[in-house]
Amino acid sequence: MKLNINLQELLGAIDVPADWVGMREVYEAHTPRMIRDGVPVANGRYATHGVMVEVLVDGQFGYYGTPNMTNEGIADAAVRAYRQAKMASKYSVFSFDLKARPPFKGEYHSPYSKDRESLSAGSLNQLLLSAYNNLKVSDKIVSASSLCQIIETSSRFISSNGSDINQEFLMLEFDLSATAADGSNQQTRTFGGMRGTCRQMGVEFFDKYEILSNANRIGEQALELLTAVECPSGEMDVVIAPDQMMLQIHESIGHALEVDRILGDERNYAGWSFVKLDDFGKLKYGSDLMNITFDPTLESEFASYAFDDGGLKASKEYLIKEGTLLRGLGGQESQIRSGLDGVANFRSSGWNRAPIDRMANINLEPGMSSFDDLIGSVENGIYMESNKSWSIDDYRNKFQFGCEYGRLIENGRLTQVVKNPNYRGISIPFWNSLKGVGNADTFGIYGTPNCGKGEPNQVIRVGHASPACLFGNIQVFGGV
Amino acid sequence: MEMIFNSLSEALFSCIDDHEHLVISFDGENSQFIRFNNASIRQTGLVDDAAIELKYIANGRTCNGAFTVSGNQSVDLERGKSEIARMRLEAKEIPEDPFLVLPQNSGSSHEIKSVNGLPFKDAVDALIPVMQGMDFVGIWVNGKMFRGNANSLGQKHWFETESHCLDYSLVTPSHQMVKGCYAGNNWNQNEYEKYVENSKNKLAIMERKPVKIDTGEYKTWFEAAAVADFLGMFSWNGISEASLRQGCSGFGRMRHEDVRLSPKFSIAEDFSPGFCPKFNSEGEVSQDSLLLIKKGELENTLVSSRSAKEYNLNSNYAESGEYLRSPKMASGSLNHDNVLKQLDKGLYLSNIHYLNWSDNPGGRITGLTRYACFWVEQGEIVAPIETMRFDDSFYRFFGDQLVEVEDKLTVIPETSTYGKRSLGATTCPGILVNSFALTL
After folding, report:
1. pLDDT recorded at residue B330
2. A424 to chain B: which residues are within 8 Å by CB?
3. Using CB atoms within 10 A as the burial measure, which of A110, B6, B326, B354 is most buried?
């Protein structure tokens, strides 16, 4: 049940001598449903609703997140935020002015054709149960699950200098998972890696035929992996599917380009970055085939929007063009602090956290090669799909990824399935080894609901779209 | 907060019919956050937050609902009634759950920790002066936390505490870092200043030029903070009974192949220090201590009541996610003063970073060195090392490669603030390992 409040009236109830006051109201409801091993394990609806009052005093922002959305509650929140900012202002990292919150007005409504209530809880449970039955292709499948989560978010931002922004989102996360096991030999196959399938759309997503056929394929592939040989070790070419490319982009490009990291805000938690402020416009990040965009406009991608949480209007921008680093992921505050061009990426996880620089949709633009071209150009290599393990250092240099499903590439052809395909590398040499970028036919749109960063910690939704890509001479290895 | 919880839960229980059950969980906080960069304030604010989660059971079906507690009783009651009405309808159309667990009334509890914390208004002036002159970066978190649970059979638990935590890094001009975490309940200004000064003293050795280490296997000392990170992996596809049954636990070799860790390795879930409530989100109360691995042998896994019903076992009242809430690893006999001498030549790792399973069935974990990590020769610290990736199995470093365990235990507080501030801590010693694999 969403409480209707008049945000403008609440703004009028605030009486503090601040240079600027903003209010961001966020309502978000998650509706998870899950069938595991034939029985329902999740049917819920989790809602959160509150307001973040933010004030600017003597160059320092202060905030107060409150669920008390009465005139008295908001007025008190503003007074406390004011005191907090005033107290901190003598030690500010940077003295901001009104340029940090430019006024914009506008709306965004994520695209969908069928809302949550178009599919009943009972029907959705039945569909997930049918998917489970198709995942369970053998007694060797010791556990299988089908799950979805529908997310409805409303965000309204107004300010004393005239911002008035309303954004409404309907989003979906979906996954199928089958685990085959024989003693301690265990293999899990999912639908695009853990929660990799996440989009802005409605329940029109639930195409029964497609879900059931994918469930069957995933169950069969889990079984296939159980008896597959280990991925070989050595340096070789690797063709990476979009559902793994998304995490490669996320970890070794997205986080590295966050300007607040480069400015050192994150050094105690997520880390720093190998990218320096003077690298923009100069650093050869990858091969000439590499074109990376910040694209909040791609329809149905998970983190599309029209304005960030500081109220800045969002647009598509090239971060890396033909391999050269052009622009960082810095919102208005970071742009002012660094003097660099940035993007509208000042985002928060909800009403109880202040915005920081985040990824949104960070995509690798399609190239010219067909999938057959990519595979056909490899004499000895591995094709990898779907992330299952990820790790990277605090400067975003040394990464290691594991995938669910691999196939050998021998003399330009995909041959036998291999299990536990892993690879590791260092970001800049890796991206400079990019020697083939798939065309639009190989392009996949994915994302993750679980990007963690910030102090206090925030988990946020990001989108990543990519074609399949070919990298040369990568360090590849298998399991124990 | 307790009054709000009590009145709201009583009102919602009165909406339940005889054939229905309702379990109510509550969590809340009044928090102050101050974020530092370069000993200055980057962001600061306050958050009041509280949420009620309802678990509704009727006719063999379970539904959940949650809403934010505004503090306005009529608004909150309306939200709660609306959720019950929604769940009542939904329970008529979803499939039956054969493994649902009905609530019980096994007794109530009430625990409020009175502390002498640092008032919000004093935080900036108390914290910043000792940081001056250093590149200090981190987060100050302070304030009250609340947890409650009640069910329609009359059981009620309440836990309330107040704590502070300054989680920080000191950074040298050459970008080497020392980690600190000053946490507790009662504020002591002198003790705080001494703690930060002690961190500052550790920076001296970080000024030495870092050495580059080749990949390969090294004798390695892990400080308690690094060991705590390894133990944290047990909560993710590890010690959970459901994970074992569902084929996604790294403990499979212990269960299926009778593989044992070192006799020097023991770990228990131990609630006796009171870092977090003993009751879980179902309102079930765990025993004070549950031995999980005894001298290398898997004695118990974490079993929730749902897993107990599904797999015909006895519950030890783990949380539904079957993760560790208050783990305590047993100490050994190695005195910290003798660590460098025992290590002689190898790696001294104070902290590790970004762990993940690289081969879960094989128990293999990958991650990175971070913060004060050193190369040691002839029992002396030579210099910090450049960041290295490791990839090795806990069946080795807690198993046949475990040489010795420290004789002292360190409490590593849970500092996560995802969604809300976390409770809990890991208590563990450092360990000396004969061979540990660096891979990149």
Report:
1. 98
2. 389, 439-440
3. B326
* DSSP-derived secondary structure letter, A365: P
- Separation CA B142–CA B33 (nearest Å): 7
Instruction: Provide, as residue numbers in chain A, all residues whose Cβ is less than 8 Å from the Cβ of B354.
Output: 391-394
Nearest by Cα to A257 from A360, A124, A105, A126: A360
Chains A, B: CB pairs < 8 Å: 276
Is residue B190 within 8 Å of B398, Cβ to Cβ?
no
Residues in chain A: 480
**For residue B49, which residues of chain A lie inside 8 Å, CB to CB?**
50, 65, 67, 352
Mutate one of A39, A53, A61, A84 to test the B interface: name it (highest B CB count within 10 A): A84
Residue spans per domain, chain B: 2-206, 216-438
Query: Which tokens in the block code for residue A356?
Result: 């920081």
Interchain CB contact of A420 with B (< 8 Å): yes
Given a cut of 90, is residue A193 above it in pLDDT?
A: no
Q: What is the ipTM of this complex?
A: 0.96
- Chain B nearest CA to A263, separation (Å): 9
| Contact state of A389 with B358 under an 8 Å Cβ cutoff | yes
Cβ-Cβ contacts under 8 Å for A209 (sequence gap 6 or more): none
Q: Which residues 389-408 of A are in CB contact (within 8 Å) with B?
A: 389-395, 397-398, 400, 402
Share of chain B above pLDDT 90, in %: 98
pLDDT of residue A196: 78
Q: What whole-number distance in Å separates Cα of residue B189 and Cα of residue B126?
A: 7
Q: Give chain A positions within 8 Å (CB) of B44.
A: 60-63, 84-85, 87-88
**Comparing C-alpha atoms, which of A117, A51, A54, A49 is closest to residue A80?**
A54
Q: Let me know: does A165 contact A105? Beta carbons within 8 Å.
A: yes
- Helix (H) / strand (E) element for B63: namely strand B61-68
Identify the band that residue B341 occupies on the pLDDT scale cut at 50, 70 and 90: very high
Which residues make Cβ contacts (< 8 Å) with residue B14, sequence separation at least 6?
A: none
In sequence order, the 6+-apart residues with CB closer than 8 A to the CB of B82 are: A1
Choices 2.60.450.10, 3.30.2290.10, 3.30.565.10, 3.40.50.300: CATH for A7-227 = 3.30.2290.10
Q: Which amino acid is at A442?
A: T
- pLDDT tier for residue A194 given thresholds of 50, 70 and 90: confident
Angstrom distance (rounded) from CA A432 to CA A422: 19
pLDDT score of A480 more than 80: no
- The residue-averaged pLDDT of A251-257 equals 98
Is any Cβ of chain B less than 8 angstroms from the Cβ of A458? yes
pLDDT at A85 over 90: yes
Among candidates B248, B416, B440 on the partner chain, residue whose Cβ is nearest the Cβ of A424: B440
Contact B145, B106 (CB under 8 A): no
Name chain A contacts of B40, Cβ cutoff 8 Å: 91-93
Q: What is the dihedral of CA A259, A263, A269, A275, to 10 degrees?
A: 60
Asked whether the CA dihedral B346, B348, B354, B356 is positive or negative, the reply is: positive
Cβ–Cβ gap B137/A80 under 8 Å: no
Q: Which residues of B touch A41 (CB under 8 A)?
A: 97
State how far the Cα of B55 lies from the Cα of B61, in Å rounded to an integer.
Answer: 10
| Mean per-residue pLDDT, A21-42 | 98
The CA distance from A8 to A154, in Å, is 16
Tokens 């339940």 sit at which residue? Answer: B16
pLDDT digits (tens, 9 = 90+) for A413-459: 999 999 999 999 999 999 999 999 999 999 999 999 999 999 999 99
In chain A, which among 214-253 make CB contacts under 8 A with chain B?
A: none
Listed by start position, the domains of chain A span 7-227, 230-477
Q: Does CATH number 3.30.2290.10 belong to domain B2-206?
A: yes
